[in-house]
Amino acid sequence: LAFFQQIKDGEIIRNGVKGYSVTIPHKEGVLAVLDEVDELAQKIGAVNTVLEREGRLFGYNTDSSAAIFSLEPALGESPEGTALSGKRVVVLGAGGAARAVVFALSQKGAKVTILNRTVERAKRLAQEVGAKWGPLSDISKMKMDVLVNATSVGMYPEVSHLRSP
Quinate/shikimate 5-dehydrogenase/glutamyl-tRNA reductase domain location, by residue (predicted)? Predict the structure, then answer.
């Protein structure tokens, strides 16, 4: 809450900050305190980049394009025109980063399944994009071409906590 209050009160701008990255757990909540949010970030429902211009705060989402930029070259060419088209992609998590990745994957024609500890959250996101959903415990049952970890598990400094299925 203090983070959002600092943004709302203009404290960050007064300190000369012209832009910043937003990360877990604030990517969705920050939307409420921004002056303007670009169309993609509105659609995704999450912001990871904030810029200040003339005292106003603008929110953007670059996670979606970054995910595609990283995944497509690794998957190679596809007769469908995008390397992700038709691929079975399992996304772990349903927070701000997952929202961006899921939206981008869906636009590229991937067959997305969202697994999350809170199944209702996975279900809500899945329904927005026409994806499948389930509990995180289903991971060992999944047939997939690509696995995307969009959770905080494995983030520094607990990098050893991430285990593959």
Answer: 83-152
Contact 42, 61 (CB under 8 A): no
Cβ pair 114, 67 in contact under 8 A: no
Instruction: Kindly state whether residue 28 falls inside one of the protein's structural domains.
Output: yes
Q: Are residues 56 and 103 in the same domain?
A: no
- 44 shares its domain with 84: no
Written as one string, the DSSP assignment of 130-162 is: T-EEEEGGGGGG---SEEEE-SSTT-TT-GGG-
pLDDT tens per residue across span 86-132: 999 999 999 989 999 999 999 999 999 999 999 999 999 999 999 99
**Inside any domain, residue 95:** yes
Q: Is 71 within the bounds of a domain?
A: no
Q: Which amino acid is at 60?
A: Y
The verdict on pTM exceeding 0.90 is no
Task: Point out the residues that are catalytic.
Answer: 27
